[in-house]
Specification:
heterotrimer, A: alpha/beta, Rossmann fold, 9-stranded mixed β-sheet, 11 helices, globular, C: mainly alpha, MetI-like fold, about 70% helix, about 0% strand
Chain lengths: ~325, ~325, ~280
C-alpha cells in the first residue's frame, strides 16, 4: 500500500461550525464544532457518550444530514459535492465501527465483504482485487483461509481486523474509528492498537479516533479534541493535554481517568443532566453548571474559541480552548 | 477464624454437546470474607460469568452440568438445593448485579415496582413497610430524589442511574454476598467512580462480601483487596491486589498487566501485547492452556497441568512463575 | 451454517417425522405430475358407491370413479396450489415488505401500507368470488385471489424485520461507502430474513390448502381436476347416505399432510433460531 505524503499547509480534514440536531427529540447533538486534522496525524476525539462524537463521524460521511456548517476534505466541502465527487471522496474516507460483530454482514464471506468496496468503487481489475484482498489480510494479520469463512466464525478481535481490512482495501487517506476498540478485551485491544500504530507509521494514514477512553487515546493520538454536550471545548497536542490540560472539563476527565475524584464531584446530580441539550440555552458556557472554576461571566456569556500561542509550538496541531478563564490570554480569535 | 461470607470449593462447569463434554470452568476455589471484595479477572470467554451463574444456580438444567465440592454462604450450603430452595436464597442471601442494566431490568415495570417485588418476596410486610424499605434502598445507593427514581421506568434513566438502581435492587434485602458482573463496563469514567463508591459503601458499612467480576484490572484495583485471575476456565493466579500490580507471578497475568494502556504525562512506551489468541473452548491445548502463547514455556507445560498452590494465601498455577 | 441447521433439525423427532410425511406426499405429487399415478381420476372404473376392496382401496364415489385415484390426483392439486400460492405470495410480500421497510415512513411505505390495509379489510371469500366472476371461471382465479391477499402477512413481517435490520451497523457500513439503497436491501438486508421466510412459507402453504378446501365447498375452488377439498364437498352429502369413502380418504390425507407441515414448521423455527444460543 502506498504511503500518503503529508500535505503541508492544508489540513486533510477540516470541520467549520458543524451543527447537527435531532429534530424529533429537539436535541442538539453537535453545536458549531470546528476542528482541523493535518494529513498523517491522528486526532483523538474524546468525550462522554452522548457528547456528539459519533454524530460527527456520521455527518462527515453524509450518513446524517447536518443542520449547518462545512466539512472540508482536502479543501472541498463534502456537503456540497456532486455524486461523482462524493463517491470519490467516500473511497478516501472510511469508517470503522465499535461492534465488530454487528458491522460485518452476517451472510457474506470475508472475501465478499472485502471485495464489495473494490467493486463498488470500480477499483482495479479482477486480478488486482484478488491480490489486494490477500495483501490486506496480511496487513491486518489474518490468514488466507479467512476468505472463505463467515463473520460469526471469528473471535471479536479477528472480526475487528476484518472490519479494519475492509476499511483499508480502498487505500483510504482518512480512517474514522468510532470507539473501534472499546468493546474489545484488553489483550485484543492492545493488538488492534498495535495494528493502528503500524498503519500510522508505515502507511501514513490520517486517523480521527473517537473514544471515551483516555488511556487508549494516549497511546495513539497526536492531538486531542474534547467534546461536551455537542460542543468542542478544547483541542490541543496530546503531550500538552496529558501533562497540563487547559479546559476545566478536560481536567475533570483526566482526574476521573486516573482514578482521582475531582473537587467538583456532586454525587448523582452529575449525570442526571448528561443528556444532550435542548436547542435553547446559548448564552452560557455549556459546562458552567458543573465547573469548579466557574465565574459570574460564565453564566452570562458563551465563551469564544480562543487560540493559545506557545513559544515552542508543537508541530502537530493548534491549541485552542473555549473558556472564559483564558480571555485575557487570547491573542487570536477563531 | 470466622465463617467466610462466600466459600466456593472446586466448582466446575461443562457444556454437554454432541461431540462431548467441554470444560468451561475447571475446579475454581476461592473464599471471600465478610466486608471484603475479591476481583475475578479474565477476558471474554474465560468462564467468569459462568462461574457467577453456577454459584447462583442460574444455569439451565439441560446441556450444562455443574459439579462442586461445596458452595457456602455464611456456612450454609447453597449448591445442593432444589429450585424452590434456590429461589428463596437468591436476593436474600446472595444477589447479582448484571452487566447490562438496560437488559437486566424489566422495561414494563417502574424501578419502585421491581425493587418492591424483591423485598416483598423475601421479607414481606405491609405495603407501607415495603415501600419504606424500597425507598430506603434507593436512598442508600445515593439517590437524593428516591421517589422520582421509584416512579421512573428503566428507559427513562441514564446508564449510570440504571446501574445504581440495579444495585438498590440487589441490596434491598441486605444480602451477605453480592456478585457484580462487569458493573462498570458500559459506563463513563465519572459514572464508574460513583458506582464504585457505592460498592465500597456496601462493603464497609454493611460488611457485604463482593465478588467483583471484570476484565478491567484498573477498576478491580480500586476496590478489591484480593484478586483471582482466570484463563480458559482455570484459575491461574490468586493473590492480593497490591502484590499483583507490583509483580504478577503468572505469565498471563503479567502479560495482561503490560497490555493495559496507561495515561502518562510523557510520551507512552510502545504498546505491548500477548501474542496469539485465546483458544476456542472446543480446541483447548493439552497441559497448561496458556502454553502456546507463553514466553516462558517448557516441555512439561504442554504435558501436565500446573496446579494452583495457595497454601500461603496466594499462588500461581505455573511451573515457572515469575 | 446450513450444516448446523440440518443437524439441529435431524435431532428433532417430531420435525423429522413431519419432514418424512411431507416428502412422501411430495413424491406422490411428482408421480402424478409425471403421469405415473392417479391418471384415472375421472375414469368410471366401477359401480357407484362400491365399498373398499382390493380393486378400489377406498371404494368408488357417486359416479363410480375410483376414490384412491382421485385422492392421488388431489395430492398433486394440493401441492400445486400450495407451492404456487406460497412462492408467488412470498416473493410479492418480500419485495413489497422489503421496500416498505427500507423506505419506512416515506411515500412508498405509505402506499404499500395503504394497499395492505385495503386488501386486509376485504372479506376474503367475497373477494375470491369476485375474482372468479371477473375472470369468468378461469381455473387460476382461485390462485390469484389467494396470492393477492396472502402476501400482506409476509410483507408485514418482512417490513418489521427490515426496519430492525436497517439499524444494524453493517448496513451503516454499506451506506458509508455510498452503496445504493436497492442493492443494500437485496444484498444485505433480505438475505437475513430467510429464516423467517422459510417458516412463514410453510404456514402459507398450509393456509393455501385449507383455503382451497373452503373455496371448493363454495364452488369457487378447483374447476379442472379434483382436489381433496372438492372431495370433501362431495362427501358432505354422501355421508348422510352412509358412504364414507370420499370423506375418509380426503380428510385423512389433508390431516396427515397439514400435520406434517406444522411439525416441520415448528422444528424449522427451532433449528433456525440460532440467536438463543447460550454463551
Amino acid at each position: 500500500m502506498n504511503k500518503h505524503d503529508g500535505d503541508t499547509g492544508k489540513p486533510l480534514l477540516e470541520l467549520r461550525n458543524l451543527s447537527l440536531s435531532f429534530h424529533r427529540q429537539k436535541q442538539v447533538a453537535v453545536d458549531r464544532v470546528s476542528l482541523k486534522i493535518a494529513a498523517g496525524n491522528t486526532l483523538g476525539l474524546i468525550g462522554a457518550s452522548g457528547a456528539g462524537k459519533s454524530s460527527i463521524a456520521r455527518a462527515i460521511l453524509r450518513l446524517i444530514k447536518p443542520d449547518s456548517g462545512e466539512a472540508l476534505f482536502k479543501g472541498k466541502n463534502i456537503f456540497r459535492m456532486n455524486p461523482q465527487e462524493l463517491k470519490s471522496t467516500r473511497q478516501r474516507i472510511q469508517l470503522v465501527f465499535q461492534d465488530p460483530s454487528a458491522s460485518l454482514s452476517p451472510g457474506r464471506t470475508v472475501e465478499q465483504t472485502l471485495l464489495e468496496p473494490l467493486q463498488h468503487f470500480a477499483i482495479g481489475d479482477a486480478n488486482y482485487r484478488q491480490e489486494k484482498t490477500l495483501q490486506i489480510l496480511d496487513t491486518v494479520g489474518l490468514d488466507q483461509s479467512a476468505l472463505r469463512r463467515y463473520p460469526h466464525q471469528f473471535s471479536s478481535g479477528q472480526q475487528q481486523r476484518i472490519a479494519i481490512a475492509r476499511a483499508l482495501v480502498t487505500n483510504p487517506e482518512l480512517l474514522i474509528a468510532d470507539e473501534a476498540v472499546s468493546s474489545l478485551d484488553v489483550s485484543i485491544q492492545s493488538q488492534i492498537l498495535q495494528l493502528i500504530q503500524r498503519l500510522q507509521k508505515d502507511f501514513g494514514i490520517t486517523f480521527l479516533f473517537i473514544s471515551h477512553d483516555l488511556a487508549v487515546i494516549r497511546q495513539i493520538a497526536d492531538d486531542v479534541a474534547v467534546m461536551y454536550k455537542g460542543q468542542l471545548l478544547e483541542q490541543s497536542p496530546a503531550d500538552q493535554f496529558f501533562s497540563e490540560p487547559t479546559h476545566p472539563y478536560s481536567k475533570t476527565l483526566l482526574a476521573f481517568a486516573t482514578g482521582k475524584t475531582p473537587k467538583s464531584w456532586q454525587g448523582d446530580k452529575w449525570f442526571l443532566e448528561r443528556n444532550r441539550r435542548s436547542a435553547e440555552n446559548s448564552s452560557t458556557c455549556v459546562f458552567a453548571e458543573f465547573c469548579p472554576d466557574k465565574m459570574p461571566r460564565c453564566e452570562q456569556l458563551e465563551p469564544a474559541m480562543l487560540e493559545i500561542q506557545h513559544k515552542n509550538q508543537h508541530a502537530s496541531g493548534s491549541h485552542c480552548v473555549k473558556c472564559h478563564l483564558y480571555d485575557e490570554v487570547k491573542t487570536n480569535e477563531h | 477464624m470466622t465463617t467466610p461470607a462466600l466459600k466456593v470449593t472446586d466448582l466446575s462447569v461443562w457444556f454437554e454437546t454432541e461431540s462431548g463434554r467441554i470444560p468451561v470452568v475447571d475446579r475454581i476455589s476461592f473464599t471471600i470474607n465478610a466486608g471484603d471484595a475479591t476481583g475475578l479477572v479474565g477476558e471474554s470467554g474465560c468462564g467468569k460469568t459462568m462461574t457467577a451463574m453456577a454459584i447462583l444456580g442460574l444455569l439451565p438444567a439441560s446441556g450444562v452440568s455443574v459439579e462442586s465440592a461445596g458452595i457456602e454462604v455464611n456456612g450454609k450450603d447453597i449448591f445442593n438445593l432444589n429450585a424452590r430452595q434456590t429461589r428463596a436464597v437468591l436476593g436474600r442471601d446472595i444477589a447479582m448485579i448484571f452487566q447490562q442494566p438496560a437488559t437486566a431490568l424489566d422495561p414494563v415495570f417502574t424501578m419502585g415496582q421491581q425493587i418492591s417485588a424483591v423485598y416483598r418476596r423475601h421479607a414481606g410486610g405491609s405495603k407501607q413497610h415495603i415501600r419504606e424499605a424500597m425507598l430506603d434502598a434507593l436512598e442508600s445507593v445515593g439517590f437524593s430524589q428516591a421517589e422520582d427514581i421509584a416512579d421512573a421506568y428503566p428507559h427513562q434513566l441514564s446508564g449510570g442511574m440504571r446501574q445504581l438502581a440495579m444495585i438498590a435492587l440487589a441490596t434491598v434485602c441486605k444480602p451477605a454476598v453480592i456478585i457484580a458482573d462487569e458493573p462498570t463496563t458500559a459506563l463513563d469514567n465519572s459514572t464508574r467512580t460513583l458506582i464504585l463508591q457505592q460498592l465500597e459503601r456496601l462493603r464497609t458499612l454493611h460488611k457485604t462480601a463482593i465478588l467483583f467480576i471484570s476484565h478491567d484490572l484498573n477498576v478491580v484495583r480500586q476496590i478489591c483487596r484480593d484478586v483471582i485471575v482466570m484463563y480458559c476456565g482455570r484459575l491461574v493466579e490468586k493473590t492480593d491486589c497490591p502484590s499483583l500490580f507490583i509483580q504478577a507471578r503468572h505469565p498471563y497475568s503479567a502479560g495482561l498487566l503490560s497490555c493495559i494502556p496507561q495515561i502518562s504525562a510523557t510520551r507512552p512506551t510502545p504498546i505491548s501485547s500477548i501474542p496469539g489468541q485465546v483458544p476456542v473452548l472446543t480446541d483447548l491445548p493439552p497441559g497448561c492452556h496458556f502454553a502456546p502463547r507463553c514466553t516462558r514455556v517448557e516441555a512439561r507445560c504442554r504435558k501436565s497441568v500446573p496446579e494452583l498452590d495457595d497454601k500461603n494465601g496466594s499462588g500461581a498455577a505455573c511451573f515457572r512463575p515469575l | 451454517m446450513t450444516r448446523d441447521i440440518w443437524q439441529r433439525l435431524k435431532s428433532d423427532r417430531y420435525g423429522m417425522s413431519g419432514l418424512i410425511v411431507v416428502t412422501i406426499f411430495a413424491i406422490l405429487a411428482l408421480c402424478v405430475w409425471s403421469g405415473l399415478l392417479g391418471q384415472d381420476w375421472a375414469k368410471v372404473s366401477g359401480s357407484p358407491f362400491e365399498s373398499a376392496s382390493a380393486a378400489h382401496w377406498f371404494g368408488t364415489n357417486l359416479l363410480g370413479e375410483d376414490i384412491l385415484q382421485r385422492t392421488l390426483f388431489g395430492t398433486a392439486t394440493a401441492f400445486e396450489v400450495g407451492l404456487m400460492v406460497t412462492i408467488c405470495s412470498t416473493l410479492l410480500g418480500t419485495v413489497l415488505g422489503g421496500l416498505s421497510g427500507w423506505y419506512s415512513h416515506g411515500w412508498l411505505d405509505e402506499v404499500i401500507l395503504w394497499l395492505k390495509g385495503v386488501l386486509d379489510s376485504i372479506p376474503f371469500y367475497l373477494f375470491a368470488a369476485a375474482v372468479a366472476f371477473a375472470l369468468q371461471g378461469s381455473p387460476w382465479a382461485m390462485h390469484l385471489a389467494m396470492i393477492v391477499t396472502f402476501w400482506t402477512t409476509t410483507a408485514r413481517i418482512i417490513r418489521g424485520e427490515v426496519m430492525r435490520i436497517k439499524q444494524r451497523e453493517f448496513i451503516e457500513a454499506a451506506r458509508a461507502i455510498g452503496l445504493p439503497g436497492l442493492i443494500t436491501v437485496f444484498r444485505h438486508v433480505l438475505p437475513n430474513t430467510f429464516h423467517i421466510l422459510l417458516v412463514q412459507g410453510t404456514i402459507v402453504f398450509v393456509a393455501a390448502i385449507n383455503t382451497e378446501v373452503i373455496l371448493s365447498f363454495l364452488g369457487l375452488g378447483i374447476q379442472d381436476g379434483v382436489s381433496w377439498g372438492l372431495m370433501l364437498a362431495e362427501s358432505s352429502q354422501e355421508v348422510l347416505g352412509g358412504h364414507f369413502g370420499n370423506f375418509i380418504a380426503a380428510a385423512s390425507s389433508l390431516f396427515l399432510l397439514l400435520m406434517g407441515f406444522n411439525l416441520l414448521a415448528d422444528a424449522l423455527q427451532d433449528a433456525l433460531n440460532t440467536r438463543g444460543e447460550f454463551t
